[in-house]
Amino acid sequence: QGIVYPAGNYTGSPYVAAPFTIPHQSDSMLYLAFSEYFFRTSSFAYYTAGAFNITIAEETCSYFNISTEIFGSIIPEVAKYSVTPYPVMLKLTATEIPIISLEQDSFTVEIQGSMEVFAVLPDSTTQLLFTMNMAANTSIALNIFDQKLVGSLCLNR
After folding, report:
1. pTM, rounded to two decimals
2. Cα radius of gyration (the chain)
3. What phi and psi values does residue 36 have, to the nearest 5 degrees?
4. Could you tell me which of 102, 99, 105, 91 has the C-alpha nearest to residue 137?
5. Can you tell me whether residue 78 is helix, strand or coil?
6. CA distance linking residue 11 with residue 14, whole number of Å
7. In this structure, what are the phi and psi dihedrals at residue 3, rounded to the nearest 5 degrees?
8. What does the alpha-carbon distance between residue 114 and residue 13 come to, in Å, rounded to a whole number?
9. Per-domain residue ranges for the chain?
10. Which of 6, 70, 96, 136 keeps 20 to 30 A from 53, CA to CA?
11. DSSP 27
């Protein structure tokens, strides 16, 4: 079992390592096993380092054609504020340490966060349009098909 922690800032893990067993098999040259503790300490380290805080800048949003006009069609208050379509900037922030749980054939990631949506004005300043809190629960299953590792992602909620 391994532990992951932020570089130069080891404060101890908020988790306790639980014992686990690896089934005895001898038909392959290499076996890898990762504990839930490894994934949880990784999540803690990345959260502490701010790795789950992402800013999706104007250039990326314009590539996907996300603007105040799109949000205005969904949220009437945005349409009232922004008559002229402006590009947007999104700031995604994890508000709690993501929880990773191992299951029989997959693992589940639960993450809570917030999203701030800004209009990028012609003078390059930003104006906050709205903030949204969100929670996501995702299952990820890994399988090997034709000697290739294939993952499937399912958004549970």
Report:
1. 0.72
2. 21
3. -60, -35
4. 99
5. helix
6. 9
7. -125, 145
8. 25
9. 36-155
10. 70
11. S
Per-residue pLDDT of 83-102, as tens digits, reads 788 888 899 999 999 998 88
Asked if residue 67 lies in contact with residue 61, where contact means CB atoms within 8 angstroms, the answer is yes
Alpha-carbon span 136 to 116, nearest angstrom: 16
User: Tens digit of pLDDT for each residue in 132-153?
Assistant: 999 999 898 888 778 888 888 8
Cα 15 from Cα 12, distance rounded (Å):
9
Residue 47: half-sphere exposure toward Cβ, Cα within 13 Å: 19
CATH, domain range 36-155: 3.15.20.10
Tell me the pLDDT tens digit for each residue of 15-35: 787 777 777 777 878 877 778
Q: Which residues pair with 114 in a beta bridge?
A: 93, 133
| Residue 9, helix vs strand vs coil | coil
The first and second tokens of residue 11, run together, are 């404060």
Q: Which two tokens stand for residue 99?
A: 């929880």
How many Å apart are CA 110 and CA 14, to the nearest integer? 17
